[in-house]
Amino acid sequence: MIRDAVLCGEVAEAARVLARLGLVTAFGHVSARAGDSMLITPAADLADVTAASVIEVPLAARLLPAGAPAEAWAHLALYRARPDAAAIARAQPAAAFAVAAVATVMVPVHGQAAWLGESVPVYGDAALLRSADRAERAASCLPAGEALLLRGNGALTLGTAPGLAVARMWLLAAACDVYLAALSASGAASGAASGAASGANPVTALSDDEIASWRAVGGELLPRLWEHLRSGPGSAGPRPSEEQGQGQPGDHRRPPGPRVMPLDLREEREPHGGAPDREQT
User: Fold this and answer.
1) What is the domain partition of the chain in residue ranges?
2) pTM for the full model?
């Protein structure tokens, strides 16, 4: 297929923002579905990724091309299992490690957490997803929803565009912070794992109606959050070096937590140059 230069640029920008938000260090990646292939960032510091360095991988690949991250299998598995997935972010928020160590599922305890799904499952195997088999087992844990916690190994988030997948990763980090704070405030942290195993929630989760109400208004709001994140501290707009494939170190300061604001994932679109007709999550 003809390489989509615009989509490569979106993937690269989303990767740089993910690095600037402090959600990755030397590891992490962003990808987007492009017909029968995916476009994914290389095994490199995301702060320096450019459109020219983005790698194309066939969705039916049996081997990964040179330069692709070894955990690209996780992206391939999710694209195969979830036809609605148009973009994926992979990162390691610190709070995600903590939540995945004390729970088998994270329920939403504040409105924005509902933007990640009715709940966020935890994949319990901490091994790296460096094979098709391991990646497929992880992907099977996310038949619906837009976020997956990986015990001891970070997280994956989905979106209808690369920037929206990154916005969800930031929201996941914030939701994990809130969940841990709720556990601490309730004095239930030590019993969270046993509570989750018995099916009891150690915190008060949003009701089904509350979750639905927050998700129903998301189409206009998640793109707004992405615009906020992409223009945050350290952003510099279009980079002159982009066409030459040269990178610059990003500002890794993480902006303040999001203001609580009420998402229809069926309607979400990325404004200002996003692809309104791209397959929806």
Assistant:
1) 5-235
2) 0.79
